[in-house]
Here is the input.
Amino acid sequence: MKRRLIVCLLPLFWVLAAMAQLPETMLLSLEGAKQYAVEHNRTVQNAGLSVKQAEAARWQTIASMLPQVSGSLDYANMCGYELKLAGMPIPMNPTGSLSLQASMTIGGQQIVGSLISNLAIEMQDVAKAKTVQAIEANVTNVYVNILATTETVDLLRKNLGNLQSLYKMTQNAVEVGAAEQIDADQLSVQVASMESAINTTERTVEVLFSSLRLLLGVSAEEVIDLTDDLDNILNADEAMKLLSTELVLEENYDYALSKKQAELAQKQVTLKAMEYVPTLTGFYQYSGKTYFGQAEGMNMTPPNTVGVTLSVPIWSSGVRAAGVTEKKLAAQAAQNTLADTEDQLKVQDRQYRYDLVSAYDNYQIQKRNIDVTQRVFDNMAKKFEYGYASSLDVTNTSTNLISAQQNYIQALTSMVQAHVNLKNLLNK
Here is the structure.
């Protein structure tokens, strides 16, 4: 009885073991994919590390103006040597000493340097936000491309089935003498062309999934399933609403970075000018010495020492002046770059609006074209089936359908790209 039960349950165990070995599928909506990419993409992670590096650099600058304390321990043994002084022997006994020194330096360059560090953190924050924006845009483009290309594969497979049916019907007609072999041959070539188009499109889908895996920061073996529908994502009317939104330069990340760089260049001028400012340094030193219970030798080290140093730059043969001039020229160049960035963004604004309108119009045309071409193909297939059309007519309409589907995908992706470009420019 037990053996019979084990035999009955054995297939179930095999099924459960096989299911346990199957890779877990990652279900992703578009928003979920963008969020996952922001959290796991290594480029975004590096941008976050750059912000932390800038914060660490700021604290280094601030800490350099705070008290610095160092200590040392020394041990010396003269190995029984005696110093002769006026004929009197002075033993040089083993000694141990403890020294503690605290110092604090304040200069103009350190103060300005801390301000520059704050500006550097702000720049890294803007750079990280720009990186996140770029990653989200890339995820959107790849996601939509996958959906559109997968939809095309389904359409091509449907049309392939129709062509195969027509070919089989024609080949049967050839065998009974009701049709010519040339008609069947033409359809066989078109069937092969459709199969090739499907294989090429499927390979394109796999390449797009590989690109998506890289953006998400997951392994190449990760199985991904996209849960959003193309119609839900592709909202052409919403994309066109961006045309009524004006460009605000301060909200654009490229402009913000260029502006921060101009401010940084101006701060560098001030930092260089701080070489003319005196530097104040104060210190305190404690020194203690022991002879390990033996007679004290010559001890000329004071236990407590306090000192203040004021370093005043007097003459550098024009080195400092030339350095300030160099930084001023760099600041002027940064201002020119900022003006160029402003002009370029305004030109991009006009170009991206034009691209979006053109892409939208082309998308509407190709959407209607693929619908008409599909109906023409279906109609021609029926005519051929009833003997009112030739195999050449079917071949031509099939070729037109493949071309129309390719044009539709290109128009769709172009509109999405134009929408994303304008959206990123406006930072909406």
